[in-house]
Structures are given as structure tokens and as C-alpha cells.
Specification:
This protein has 112 residues and is mainly alpha-helical. The chain has a domain of 60 residues. Helices cover 56% and strands 7% of the residues. It contains five helices and two strands. It has a two-stranded parallel sheet. The radius of gyration is 15 Å and the shape is globular. The chain starts with 10 loop residues before the first helix and ends with a helix.
Length: 112
């Protein structure tokens, strides 16, 4: 699951509900999040907001509706959540390396 989904923001309680649901269904629960520095996050979300006419990027526009200060506050919440979820796996995002980031994500999901 990705913590960057603003619409599903619920912090730890939301993640715990997901873990419970997975357990009840007999599924393995993998908790991963994408990691990047603040400047890159702001740049990426700003670019995605510019592209928000494409439905794929609408969530970026929603995340930035309060401007850069709102996004910075959101990053603060994500960092706090990461501290509260020490078993979650951080996936480094390398700018321009979508395939490499995806491989790292798949590796984390495969338990590597």
C-alpha cells in the first residue's frame, strides 16, 4: 500500500485496518512506502499538478490544493507515520528511474 494516497489518509488506524482485512482474508500484508527528499517531492507533485487534467494525476492536484505549505505539512505527517510504522519498508525513488523503483517495490513485496 502506498501512504501517498491523500484520499485514504487515515494514518496508522487505516493501515491497521488494512492489515486486519488481509489477515482475515488469509492474505499476506506488505507495508511499503516510497521515500524521497522534500525538494523532489515538492517538484514531483508540482509537475503532476500541472498534468492534473489527466485523471492519473488528479490526486497530486488534491494534495497540493493548499499549496507548497500544505504539501510540506503532508510530508511531515508521512515522516511521522514512518516513525510509527518501523516494520514498513521504505523504497527509494530515483528521479527518472521508474523501472528501477518498480523493481525495488516488487522486491520488497516478494520479501527480498
Amino acid at each position: 500500500m502506498t501512504w501517498w494516497c491523500r484520499n485514504s489518509w487515515g494514518g496508522s488506524k487505516f493501515i491497521e485496518r488494512l492489515a486486519e482485512t488481509a489477515s482475515e482474508a488469509g492474505a499476506r500484508f506488505c507495508e511499503v512506502y516510497l521515500l524521497d527528499d522534500r525538494a523532489s517531492i515538492v517538484r514531483r507533485f508540482t509537475e503532476r499538478t500541472r498534468l492534473a487534467a489527466d485523471p492519473t494525476h488528479v490526486d497530486a492536484g488534491e494534495t497540493l490544493r493548499d499549496g507548497e505549505a500544505g504539501l510540506t505539512a503532508y510530508v511531515d505527517r508521512i515522516e511521522e507515520l514512518a516513525r510509527l510504522r518501523p516494520h514498513a519498508t521504505a523504497i527509494d525513488c530515483t528521479p527518472g528511474d521508474v523501472e528501477g523503483t518498480f523493481r525495488r517495490l516488487v522486491g520488497a513485496l516478494d520479501g527480498e
